[in-house]
Amino acid sequence: MIYREAGQFKTTYASDQAVFPIAQDRVVVGLAVVAAFVAPPLLADEYWLQAVLIPLLVYALAALGLNLLTGYAGQLSLGTGGFMAVGAYAAFKLTTAFPQLNIILVFLLSGVVAAAVGLVFGVPSLRIKGFYLAVATLAAQFFLIWLFNKVPWFVNYAASGTITAPPRSVFGVMVAGPTATSQARYVTALALVAVGAIVAKNLVRGRVGRSWMAIRDRDIAAEIIGVRPLRTKLLAFGISSFYCGVAGAELVFLYLGSAETLAFDISLSFLVLFMVIIGGLGSILGSFLGAAFIVLVPIFLTNAPHLVGLVLPVALQKEMELMVFGGLIIFFLIVEPNGLARLWQITKEKLRLWPFPH
Amino acid sequence: MRSRTVLIGMLAAALVAGPLLAAAAAQPKEMFIPLLVYRTGAYAPSGIPIANGFVDYFTLLNERDGGINGVRVVWEECETQYDTKQGVECYERLKSKNPVLVNPYSTGITYQLIPKASVDKVVVFSMGYGNTAAADGRWFPWVFSFPTTYWSQASAVIRYIGQQEGGLDKLKGKKIVHVFHNSPYGKEANTTLETLARQLGFELTLLAVDHPGQEQKSTWLQVRRINPDWVFMSGWGVMNQVAVKEAAAIGLKMDHFIGNWWSANDSDVVPAGDGAKGYKGATFHAPGTAFKVHQDIVKFVYDKGKGGGGKKEDMGTPLYNRGVVNAMLSAEAIRTAMTKYGNKALTGEQVRWGFENLNLTEPRLDQLGMKGFMHPIKVTCEDHEGNGPILVQQWDGKRWTLVSDWIAPMREVVRPKIEAAAIEEGKKLGYTERDCAKEK
Fold it and tell me: How distant, in Å, are the alpha carbons of B51, B74, B302, B306, B318 from that of B57?
């Protein structure tokens, strides 16, 4: 019903190849983006913004980056945490060295630094494939974290080895540091992730994305039809690391406020990988759904006993949370191995044919 | 199809109902204190006894005295697993209940909360942990780290080693190894040790152990190769027991192995069995249950079946007692604030005044049933550390016994460094120095 497309004629190639070919999609997505910009800053309280929505956006951006690499280009990576750390430490070094530099520009530059590092660690992907590549990227994870722990220059010789986000503003509004409101942080994170998603969506449906998918589906065949593996794979590593780097900088500047290397350890790499797998490999929407699942479900499980008036000891509650969360992941993967994005796709197909689904 | 429908339904429920909260504001005659605890994960061996001690003391106050001057203390535990992200989530969640002070129980989480708490008007009480630079109250009015800090502790431990060697001048040429948890917490002592190594001429080697510290073979092989005269350790959680076992395995002289106050609990030495005999640890209060406060806890808490998760027999471990001390200091600071603002539920700002003007004297400790349990403290506007002395305790295979008198930290070394670091750290956060002369 709501998805009835009768009357929508496509008279040009441009309209047929649009990002959202169906008019309803355009309206819904447009409204959703506007709502995301307007509603939470006005309605949500500090807890929602600071502990739920901002981490959600940061993780979504990281998942988006990893999805480009793993979902679209088929290169399995466990170095996400390391690349995010590069972004975070680069942003810290840049903004402390050049305090006048606009913080958004700092985020983007730190993404560029992360991309450069990603290129270096992407080189083995030319020879190594699949699980073996995962192990090679694991080396990136451990090396980078070790490096930031070992060399005090990265933390400006702070005795504790912690990086702290200094106060920074954009157009006169504080977005980082202790006095920045969570509304300002949220809007900044949302703007970055929105732009990131639009760029990613256009990348994957263009020439670059198609060459990534060709490599993913059968690299030898791709090479035969003229896709250059070196350039394509390295490009995937570079762009993916750029997204992860920006996400890492956001993690420190917009979400945590200060961080140590432990915040970027191997568990973060796995977390982002799980987001991509649960959300849907090779799907932009899936990155958001996966991040939402991983961020929201544990919080829901933590608060659920309170909502029904059940008071449990915290240790028992935490262990139950882990068990239920693990169980849910298995359940979801059995019911829908292609991820949450596929669920939405199926729902949409059915709605388009409603009331005569087959 | 069916299972998919269930799936979609569940997703929608999780997304919508997710973090909905029943944020009940504290009652007028109650004060809310959030407890960030870790009773699960790699740090649970350290986290459980502290949380139990804390809860038991507050239960005692409520049961025996009806709260602090008639104002009941209410609290809620939140599990952080010693993880900064979960800690921030906990803090943000419990903030809606109007807390007056927060005990992060983690140096990493303390770093997160220092910038937030001053904006939210919540006192950060990081007792013997956290950011040492924040001990300068002129730059960090909302952060308190008394009775003492990591830097003071490191200097006091060196003084103790000097005493054992027959004078600080005898340390020249001695080899001292610092084995530390590779995190902001573990690194805190390094700068002080480096300064003292230069001044006193001992050879310092810093060996990092990565989180969570279950694998330390290579670290202890290095220790064996160095063959140090003394080993000092800043460990936490599961790292401690592994380190003590490894040290015993390489045949280190255990009475030349000193843990800091977070590395000397029963749970750290029991797994190593007889190998741990002689292991020493720093502390700022006595171990054991030979104090009136413990009798009261048994009488009013455990005998009434209101224990905070532990058993009566688990009382008296160093970390349990630390939880008790932490709760007592919080309560006494609130009591101090009540002398000025009256016996009612106070705000964060009023409690902050109480912390800053806390003067815990020997007679007061006696009244609290803690005679000989800890050293008196006086907090001032400039000095949020109190510069408290430490004790050294030793494990005899069954229990901890005190083997030293109170050892004063080297204030002349530590304080100038704290003041310099406070300026640096404070400026990073955009703080300004306040004038303590105007605070009276």
Answer: 10, 12, 11, 11, 15
Looking at the 3D structure of chain B, how many domains does it have? 2
One-letter amino acid of A330: I
Residue B15 lies in a domain: no
| pLDDT tens sequence for chain A (358 residues) | 677 777 888 889 888 888 888 888 889 899 999 999 999 999 988 888 988 999 999 999 999 999 999 999 999 999 999 999 999 999 999 999 999 999 999 999 999 999 999 999 999 888 888 889 999 999 999 999 999 988 989 998 887 788 988 889 888 888 888 788 889 999 999 999 999 999 999 999 999 999 999 999 998 999 999 999 999 999 999 999 999 999 999 999 999 888 888 889 899 999 999 999 999 999 999 999 999 999 998 888 888 887 777 777 888 888 888 899 889 888 888 888 888 999 888 888 888 887 776 6
Cβ atoms of A201 and A283 within 8 Å: the answer is no
B1 found inside a domain:
no
- Does A324 contact chain B (CB < 8 Å)? no
A 168-187 residues with CB below 8 A of B?
A: 177-179
> What CATH number should be reported for the domain holding residue B196?
3.40.50.2300
**Cβ–Cβ contact A45 with B under 8 A:** yes
Contact status, residue A127 vs residue B390, Cβ threshold 8 Å = no
A247 close to A62: Cβ distance less than 8 angstroms: yes
SS3 assignment, position A159? coil
Whether residue B104 is found in the same domain as residue B173: no
Closest approach of A23 to chain B, Cα-based (Å): 24
Q: State whether B429 and A296 contact (CB < 8 Å).
A: no
Q: Give ipTM to 2 decimals.
A: 0.82
- pTM score above 0.90: no
| Same structural domain, B134 and B168 | no
- Chain A residues touching residue B131 (CB < 8 angstroms): 160
